[in-house]
Amino acid sequence: MNDLPETSATDRRIRQRRNFQHMLRPRSIAYIGGRGLADAMDYARELGFTGEMWTVHPSYEEIGGVRCVPTVADLPGVPDTAWIAVSTERSVDIVRELAAIGAPSAVCYAAGFSEMGDGGLERELIAAAGDMALLGPNCMGMINFLDGIAVTVGDHGVLRPERGIACIAQSGTIVGNMVMSERSLPVSHMLSMGNQSVLDIADGIDAVTDDPRVTAIMLYIEGLKDAEAFARASARAFAAGKPIIVLKAGVSEAGRQIALSHTGSLAGTPELYEALFERLGIISVATFPELLEMAKLLSVGEIPQGNRVMIETCSGTDSGYCADLADRFGVALPQPDEAVKAELRKVLPAIATAMNPLDVTMAQWADREAQATSLITLLQQPADAAALVINYPANGGGETYDPAIEAMLDVRQATGLPCYVITNLPEGAPRPMRELLLAHGIVPLQGMEDAFSCLGRAARYVARRRELEAAGGPEQRIVGAGELQGGTLLDESASKAALAAFGVAVPAARLVQGAEAAVSAADTLGYPVVVKGHGSTLAHKSELGAVAVNLRDAAAVRAAATTMAAIPGVEGLLVEAMVGDAVAEMIVGIKRDPALGLALVIGSGGILTELLADSVNLILPASEADVRRAIGRLRGHALLAGFRGRPAGDIDALVATASAIAAYAQAHAGTLMELDVNPVLVREEGKGAVAVDALIRLGTPTL
């Protein structure tokens, strides 16, 4: 179990996770509902369940060949788990009755709880469950294919791999589609979490992590109920060497609304979910085909340790498209050096060109030995993986296509590298071909676009994993941030003072009333100066004309101050020393998400903020190393590094500034609603970084 703080809620979660194991490997199952239970019982038997089956119905004599008892209290014993397929309201009563006899786990099939807005009924369900490991409601149940256990509705096949990928999703249909796909994906478990009223995705991850037969975990997430529990469970999976692949739903506003109505999940801020996945070393994908292909790649365990891939084709078109896709998805195509080219010319047809991708032409296509020799020769150039691009006919390859496939078996044996057969189209990999390749440790990737996407993601996963391992593993803590209401805007002077107390450098300044006082302040500070309108309601001063920069004499200050004093909302004037030697303007801010807590945002600032949309999000807490790495990912990093001979910026000072802002946010997590520092002026290397504008809004926690 996880090392969790000792609280009553934590103790209950530990007991629920322990009870979840009874569902994964039950010796007895109670079925509660109507005639439809027979299908669930038949499927459980077909998959391999040989334990006790009991049925509950107040009036039926039998269901599925098993004599019914009228109530849960009349069961002949305490079931390890139960399948509850009754009405929404009756489900709460049944859960309560099962808990009363000590049943450790159950699946609640019914919908109509929080996804329909009935939070009260779902709270009753949670209270009724107590320590019970309850899956659902509004879910399709659970299948443990490895051990032949099904507590679910419908038929999801009877393939039982010796090892495979655990599939965990809130949706029932989605997990069913994954299991039944034509992708030769070995699925170890299917967990449909539904509304996550008791057990959530974190519990699902935790439940399968300790099983050595589970090679990886794939997730379909609409929303997380407990981000910190998810982080802890994901970190355990990381430590156990089990990669996690995720597809996050609800990235559009319409998608977020549908997620709320589907499983009652708040979908959260999409970019912050991506930041969370990045922090935890989770592979995030954009489509279902990518999810399946990535899972298949990981299930075989043949992950390329870098992004260098050598590719063989029989078509100039395929080779050209491979080059395009490699560039799009971050896959490197190393070109052979002169020595390797010379060796290639000895084995290639005269019309072929010695390059990568290697088009061996149709002249060599039906020759297994020649094709294998060509690719093995190309692989004298260092690479991380080898691939063949081919669309295999549905009715069999015969003398033309089979030699190409068989040649890859030889390449795999000769090189020991991860090997892939990439089909042009998803349907270009019929089952016999897939099974042959998988039996020899070669991964059939279906569809060129998804294949290259997965190869690029796999290489980045390996690099990220190394970074996290060097840091001692993923950061598991989340800075909680509940809902806030109201909102009090601190004026600029108060905002800067609050940040300065945490180590953020701000310009020397004077807060004054009237034009003559502004001139006096400017004389004291020294020219040039900046004059700003100041007030508790001025959130966006530039748009109001309440900012004047680079004022070089008293006349300019007097004129600007006089104009600003007439602007509605201006209560005073802020005169600041001008910072005129900035190498780059950056923005640093804080986002608040009820599900994921606080996040630090770093991006290109000033006028580039909206023009480039160049920013990186970091879930807090974040280390200085995390902040430095995030800055390095920005397109604006080129300015900081010394663009086209310009001086390099003080990146150390920017890291320190962002870290200080994060420290302020964490200290005020209970009330911080909004924080925006734009711009942070980064001066030349060694000269520091200065926050020249700041906005802080504080709220009140909701009850």
Any descriptors?
alpha/beta; 7-stranded mixed beta sheet; Dna Ligase, domain 1; 39% helix; 703 residues; Rossmann fold; single chain
Could you explain the architecture of this structure?
This protein is α/β, with parallel strands linked by helices. It folds into 4 domains: 8-299, Succinyl-CoA synthetase domains (Rossmann fold); 302-470, Succinyl-CoA synthetase domains (Rossmann fold, 3-Layer(aba) Sandwich); 508-577, ATP-grasp fold, A domain (Dna Ligase, domain 1), CATH 3.30.1490.20; 584-701, ATP-grasp fold, B domain (D-amino Acid Aminotransferase, Chain A, domain 1, 2-Layer Sandwich). Helices cover 39% and strands 22% of the residues. The chain has 24 helices and 30 strands. The strands form 5 sheets. The chain has a 7-stranded mixed β-sheet. The longest helix is centred in the middle third of the chain and has 23 residues, at 448-470. The model is unreliable at 1-6 and 254-268 (pLDDT under 50).
C-alpha-based Rg, rounded:
31 Å
Could you tell me the mean pLDDT? Answer: 91
User: What summary fits the major beta sheet?
Assistant: 7 strands, mixed
Number of DSSP-assigned strands: 30
Oligomer: single chain
CATH class of the largest domain: Alpha Beta
What is this structure's SSE topology?
Elements: H1 8-24, E1 28-33, H2 37-47, E2 52-56, E3 62-63, E4 66-69, E5 81-85, H3 88-100, E6 105-108, H4 119-129, E7 133-135, E8 141-144, E9 149-152, E10 164-169, H5 172-179, E11 187-192, H6 201-209, E12 214-221, H7 227-239, E13 244-248, H8 253-263, H9 270-280, E14 283-285, H10 288-300, E15 309-313, H11 316-329, H12 338-347, E16 358-359, H13 368-378, E17 385-389, H14 398-415, E18 419-423, H15 431-439, E19 443-446, H16 448-470, E20 484-490, H17 492-500, E21 509-512, H18 515-525, E22 529-534, H19 541-544, E23 547-551, H20 554-565, E24 572-577, E25 584-593, E26 597-604, H21 608-612, E27 615-619, H22 624-632, H23 637-642, H24 651-667, E28 672-682, E29 689-691, E30 695-701
Helix pairs in contact: 3-4, 6-7, 10-16, 11-16, 12-13, 13-14, 18-20, 22-24
